[in-house]
Amino acid sequence: MISQFFVLSQRGDNIVFRDYRGEVPKGSAEIFFRKVKFWKEDGQEEAPPVFNVDGVNYFHVKVVGLLFVATTRVNVSPSLVLELLQRIARVIKDYLGILNEDSLRKNFVLVYELLDEVIDFGYVQTTSTELLKSYVFNEPIVVDAGRLQPLNPAAIFMQGTKRMPGTAVTKSVVANEPGGRKREEIFVDIIEKISVTFSSSGYILTSEIDGTIQMKSYLTGNPEIRLALNEDLSIGRGNGRSAYDYRSSFGSGAVILDDCNFHESVRLDNFDLDRTLTLVPPDGEFPVMNYRLTQEFKPPFRINALIEVAGALKAEVILKISAEFPSSITANTISVQMPLPKYTARATYELEPGAIGQTTDFKEANKRLEWGLKKIVGGSEHTLRAKLTFSQELHGNITKEAGPVSMTFTIPMYNASRLQVKYLQIAKKSNTYNPYRWVRYVTQANSYVARI
To answer: Which domain of life is it from (predicted)?
Structure first.
């Protein structure tokens, strides 16, 4: 049961506000923003997604720089409310095409109409874009996408203003193209989030992939679609095959998923036979299939980290990143972070000769080294040396005071699980009907950590 819903900009401006039950003070948006902005508890940089202030529960998710917030006084499931906020963001994005401050302000009438249909007196009614079409009749005012950062299928789970290049779909599902025509096309994104933990000697301790096949359809008449996956795809470990049974020396054997689930529109009549999914896609963006994989896979990056004492008040850090994917693929928006000893006073950096598009920083407030790389081409290596100066002499093991190294990245057109869409077949309405089909792959870091 939700008392209020509101959307704030990064500056704290209240863009959308809806009070469903009148149980929470009107100034809750200001209270929330001040709490999030000045969150210092336990030295954390960001407020957790759920917290309580004066008996009011605040839930929030970040989507392309906007804060989607719900409040309530009752004890509700946090995961339910966070999922609801993500779905509200997705529904609004389906209707507006682009989700940002400008599009929300220009379409506030449509947004309020959507919110009143999604939630009634604090109770959720539906978050289906297709069902909402029957009740919402306002046309969106289309915002020019040329100069804007679009929301993509994966951005709903990302923090701040980070975005994935190459996966943006910025059209409304209800608005027509200029001239009244609608471009027939369908987008399928295979999005994988990788979690890997390396030991201090470089061995993989834990590895996991959380993947989703995301679809967004702009097809009129909702034709039936057949989506074919790898024929050697196996679900679960109870198939008599080892998790590490590669069929060739190149490691291109069977894809073995631990488990998966499917959207309610998916029919699995032929899935066991030939690994094809049959569905009539609903309007808007939706996950066709979610899957998880914990078998051994080749991580896209290797991280080597070393910290050595160089004197009574000095130490040296060496970070090396190796890209272990084909040279035809380029990773971008790479960020490497490493907590340093709390008595670090200064850090000076030395990049490799000819380094382009790299940034370094020392966050003195929380004693953290930051290294940013605009892009990394497959097969390349990059090294950073940092000389640390301490405010007091070392007492104990410096490796226990520093690290671990964490890394975030985005790799378009690459997936570590080797799950593939073999073909995308659309039921023909006529001989001339041939919609555009877009299938794309994106891999990003979820928790990519190397111990020192």
So the answer is: Eukaryota
